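2024-03-11 09:14:02 DEBUG pipeline.ingest accepted 1 chain
2024-03-11 09:14:02 DEBUG pipeline.ingest length=219
2024-03-11 09:14:03 DEBUG pipeline.predict start
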Amino acid sequence: LAEDGIAWDAVELDAGEPIPPLDGYDALWVMGGPMDVWEEDYYPWMGPEKAAIREWVAERNLPFLGVCLGHQLLADALGGRVSPMAAPEVGILDVELTEAGRRDPLFAGLTPVSACLQWHGTEIAEPPLGARVLARSHASAVQALRVGRRAYGLQYHVELTPATVSDWSAVPVYARSLEQTLGPGALDRLEAEAAAHMKGFNRAARRLYDNFKGLVAGV
């Protein structure tokens, strides 16, 4: 964003920051977190967040990108259903584009099957009405979706840096799912595997960013 001269504002809802007026923005990104979409009693900011997503996508029809929790919030806000998985999906695992995904401009230039970081125990069980499923994995049928022309959700993570796995393992919910799914010593193994894939992760992330930027610009 800095390279492209694009101004952006980060809003930390869990820190009590309010959602700003949406006028004047060109795109909305909603990122991840350890909470679940139905936990509004514990995280009351999720109610206004879902309302903002509905306004942005359903009323304004503007570009949206949700990652992990943001992917699930998009589905929940628009009438889909999110539910717990039989077992968490954690690790570096393959994600496969569907036929619709292979034709979608967001994934132009990306391989049909790619290794991605997964770290979630809930999933979209029923996409919103009219949504197109763009990617899947062995454990989860909705790894990516599109609503309308320019609203996207990704269940898997593309925003990795060398510190990501270590940082996230400090979150108790994430640490528990990591050990329960991959066993003792899982952190060291996952850090090593992520490091081995980091160049590929970053290339894919840059391609997705460039493709999404083109969608925002209407290219």
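2024-03-11 09:14:41 DEBUG pipeline.report The chain has a mean pLDDT of 96.
2024-03-11 09:14:41 DEBUG pipeline.predict end
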